[in-house]
Design brief:
The protein is mainly alpha-helical. It is built from 7 helices and no strands. It has one domain. The chain is elongated.
C-alpha cells in the first residue's frame, strides 16, 4: 500500500474529469456519463483521510488538494460550454440548478476556493473527531 495516496487520488480526480468531459463531448448520454464521478472519488478520499486521523491542519491542506483539481476540470468544462455554446453535462440543469452559465462558472470559481473545500474539511474533521472519540473509549 502507498504511504500517501494523495497524488494518486488527485490523478484519479483529473482523469475521471477528463473522461467525463470526453464522454459528454462525444455525445454519450448524461445517464451514462454521470457515472464518471469526481465527487465519488473526493468523498472516498475524504472518508479515508478523515478516518486516518490526520491533524486538522493536514486535513485542511488535503481538502484543498482534493478540490482544486476538481474545480479546474469543472471551470474548464463549463468554460468550454460557455465559449462554444455546445451543451455538456457540466452545465446540465440538474448540476447548474438552472442558473445562467456565467453565474455557474463564477460560482465554481468562488466556491472552489471557499465553501467547497471547507465543506470537505468539515466532513473529514467530523470523522477525525468521531474516530478519536471512539479510540479514547478503548
Amino acid at each position: 500500500m502507498f504511504k500517501n495516496p494523495l497524488p494518486l487520488v488527485v490523478t484519479a480526480i483529473i482523469a475521471t474529469g477528463a473522461l467525463r468531459f470526453a464522454l459528454t463531448v462525444w455525445g454519450v448520454s448524461d445517464d451514462i456519463t454521470k457515472y464518471a464521478s469526481m465527487t465519488v472519488i473526493i468523498l472516498g478520499a475524504a472518508l479515508y483521510y478523515g478516518l486516518r486521523a490526520a491533524s486538522y491542519r493536514e486535513l485542511l491542506r488535503i481538502s484543498y488538494a482534493l478540490l482544486i483539481p476538481y474545480m479546474l476540470v469543472e471551470i474548464a468544462a463549463i468554460g468550454y460550454t460557455w465559449s462554444t455554446g455546445r451543451r455538456t453535462i457540466f452545465h446540465a440543469p440538474q448540476y447548474s440548478f438552472g442558473t445562467p452559465i456565467h453565474l455557474h462558472f463564477w460560482g465554481h470559481a468562488a466556491g472552489g476556493l471557499t465553501w467547497e473545500p471547507l465543506s470537505v474539511f468539515m466532513l473529514m474533521a467530523i470523522l477525525r473527531a468521531l474516530r478519536t472519540r471512539v479510540l479514547a473509549r478503548r
